[in-house]
Batch of 4 targets.
Target 1
Amino acid sequence: MNEQATQTPSRENPRFGRKVFFLDPPLTLNNAIIEPLRGDEYEIYVIQDYKLVKSILMANQDAMIFINIDHSLTFKQWFNFIFSFKDHPVLSTIFVGIVSERATSSDQSLFLENLPLPCGFQILGSISNAVLLENFRKIFELNGAKGNRKYIRLDCQNSKVVSACFIQENKLYEVIIKNISSVGFACTFDEKSAKYFKENAVFNNISFTFGRNTIVCPSVVFRIMENTAVFLFTSAMPLAYKEAIRRFVQSVLIKTFELKLKNYTMDFTKYKDEIDMGAVAMAKDARNSQISFDGDSDFGNLENVDEI
């Protein structure tokens, strides 16, 4: 690490990116922003109740969250809610942004000037949805939301949500899917079919079943590691199939997240409706006196297949 690097704080998480959470987003944000961003292969979850936010974020260090401050609390209470992150070892790593349809420019200044908000403050309705979407894309890119891995991957090892098989020499072989994304998958194979798995081997008839869908995906072996093969889908695979896999992967991740919500602890703290500007000033001085470095800002080349 060179001297210049140590003096330049990085806002990127270069390997596996950050999970992104939206708290109580308005319907327009969900339709015009969140869904297109999911289409860009960002891992995004929606939280409806702010009382669950801290518990969820404590389980997701270095996540990003966009908080809608128009409901549940007053603007000053929301300020104190976010301010309370500063002393927690995990919450202080969270990259926070704010969205609002009701905030004024002075409200925006209050938050931006006194809280660490690497994900900014978006006043909804002040710009077109197209411009807003590009703003979010820039925020996500700046803050390393993807990291090195460019595609969301579903871990299938603990549940058989995807099954796959192929035919060779008039025999049907099954493979066990370890993980899958819209660009490829990893699978394990047994001794009976091992002779077919060689690097650069093309499989034109691998059939996947997930949910109610069954599709045939032309694929090529990218790498072999013991009894595990890593495949990439070839250019012959229809884009509609890739999109179907992407939607399935995200739907399973979202459903899994929602099923876990009942396990999180609720936060019933009564946040004050007034701001202690003295405490805020001290916290700001403490932040300004510290320069942190969070890794190399140059993602460089992928180091291994886990980053695909």
Note: Residues 100 and 123 are 5 Å apart (CA to CA).
Target 2
Amino acid sequence: MGLDNKHLKLLLDMIESRFGKQLTLEDVQKLIKMETIDDCKQYMKVMLDFYFDVIMSPSGRKASSYIEDDRNLWLQTMFSKGCQFVSLLDGVGYSKGISHLNPIIDFSILFTIARSAYESLIVFELLFVLPKTEEQQTIVYNLFMAHGLSERLKDLDENAKRNNPTRVQEEQNDIDNCWKTIEDTELYSELDPQTKAKIKNAFGLRYRFAFKDDNTLEVVKFENAHTLLKVKENLFDGIYSFFSLHGHPSYLSLIQFRDAFKDKYRADMDMAKHATQCVLSFMSIFIVDYMKLNSEVKAMYERLEEPRRFAIGMYEDAMRGEKKFK
């Protein structure tokens, strides 16, 4: 017994809602232009759809160590930032009595999220991508863990420490275990005295380091960390300062907010498009590098229709010229 046209349409609608509409090259070309805020939202949805599919798949949860487990969780945090960003693209209006404010977009908040996505991308690279050996990763990751745990302990006031002695001791044990894990690596025993001292002095206080070819450590600052992403020269120069300038309560951010809504020109729309391009860039680099670490997720990507693959990998490819993911 066959389906009638009504039930067939319902079935097709269900399939489309489950797997998503097939993207055409024309669809992608329209999204790339970002002529409207709706284009921004639709492009973000293409990216977020793939992130969501990875999160929901067994491949996206597969892990053989606590570090890989945290790596998968990192993907979820990037997905969350992207979702929050999209929700803000709708803008916010306000009504009181007969007075009404049409929705506006506070682009300073968009750039704050963009900065957070950038920072997450940089730390992801430091912890999961840049280490060339398992022991390099063990050292930088335990520095990262010790820093976070130490900061949480430091935030507890004396009263909280007295009332939660078991928790405090467990946290301290975890911190101590981080140091033991670092010390037990063969790499640590082979490091020169200066590098060992740098690790000891940083333990519990700092974590943003990258191993150089000679196994010495260099400090990484967000201001110039874009050089580690292997993007084309000058592409991200000054981007972190730009985010900070717009996200912090600076005089520039104040006057830009003032001028954004003059006459009929809506600068908030243009700034929102720029912020969207930034977030898409970071999410594109992130997911491509994530796929390099997880071949099963790369296989998921390769099963997508070509225009969708292009939309997801386009920014990464344009900025690096790898021509691997498009």
Note: The radius of gyration is 23 Å.
Target 3
Amino acid sequence: MKPEASGAVPSGMKEHEIDDRDLTPSGPTDPASLQQPDATLCPECQGIGATASGETCPVCEGTGKASGRTGGG
């Protein structure tokens, strides 16, 4: 006996496939749909180089740029 499926499978897809249609930008001419985080900026301070309290960012050490310590890929 197969376990019940959690939801309906969209037409044209198999049960084991992932529906990723909603992961694409909503419109190619909509600038807001194309915005993504900038991989060159420090993820902690977003390129400012300082924390909210005004101290030097401990991750990028004040440069505002992503470093090897910030991970990535």
Note: The two ends are 42 Å apart (CA to CA).
Target 4
Amino acid sequence: MTRFNAWNVIKNGLNDQTGWDRQWRDPEPKKEYEIVIVGGGIHGLATSYYLAKNFNIKNIAVLEKGWIGGGNAGRNTTIIRSNYMMPGSHQFYEHSLKLWENLSHDLNYNVMFSQRAHVSLFHSPPARDVAARRYNIMKLHGTDAELWDINKLKKNIPYLNYHNARFPILGAAVQNRAGNARHDAVVWGYARAADQLGVDILQNCEVTNILRTNSNIDGLETTRGIIKAKKIGFAVAGNTSRLWEMTGLGNLPIESHKLQAFVTESIKPLIDQVIVYGVGGAHFYISQSDKGSLVFGGDLDWYKSYAQRGNLPIVQDCAEAAMAILPCLGRIRIVRHWAGVCDMSMDGTFFICNTPIKNLFLNAGWNYGGFKAGPASGWYFADLIANEQPNQIIKNHNLERFEKGINLDERGAGPDPKLHG
């Protein structure tokens, strides 16, 4: 595989780009693998990459029912941050952010990570106190965190609605190392790097049945034949409950809801940061892409769904939320919108854990946090599968935590998955 560097870019620019190889192979499935990861999104590909890189395991397959980048990985708003405070969650997302900071070099692929700052507005003195508590905890852990008063906010982001806002803006909590990345580039980069280490990436390979004997899975029936494996990992986001049902293990403590996103026509550079706010039932986030389009979204649909399409009520809700703080966008046209499927857990926190089946491992329940968590998710899931026991950072991120009364409720919204946006 041709390595990306300045010399190869120049050389191929002079020979009509004829010197590039395929970015990853399209192999035929083997009859048996040491490890099979179901799900070819960011989490599944990252897991296979770190299994091969960190543990030198080569006989690995990633099964993707569609094409690489065709699922949730290509249906998000790509925000990356580590402004968490709960034990386990903070360390996890900070590790993920550090992996993001070196990911392009690690994968030899430009994932277009832009550390443009995450600016979370607050609108009341109590909200400022809550933000101060969270960001002070972050600073105690060595994570960058700032509180901007209204004067500093106006200096850095002068075009917000400071004078006639429905929700008066008092300041913002800011993480400068946060930002966003290009979702397609991330999955392509992980796929390319995993393939280079010998991982078989099997596209158009949907799991249709699970062959189970007592406490062990013997193999997977797929649209490309039966594939056996010594160990199996599920990393299929909103479709986890469908796959879990095939195992015969009953129900999972998650619900699948769709989260919509929107893209506008391109405009001149305006928004340098990721701007977020949530108050009075509204929730909104927005950034600007390199092409000039504004990318934004808000709350998820509260009804359960596997759909990957939008609807007009959420269009109106997000447009109203945008106009509340950015009235200058009133005449911008939305050119497309879509939905991804979020697997919402009861306390808003993920699962990376063992399961009642000895050789089956679970990666699920990512709520709103799936994209930013991708690198660390792959790192810790690979560690779990290789060692068959969880790292200390994720020891409570299991299916038994609700039985033990360990709720990792970062938002403090209670046991309702719809409220953990």
Note: The longest strand covers residues 254-266.
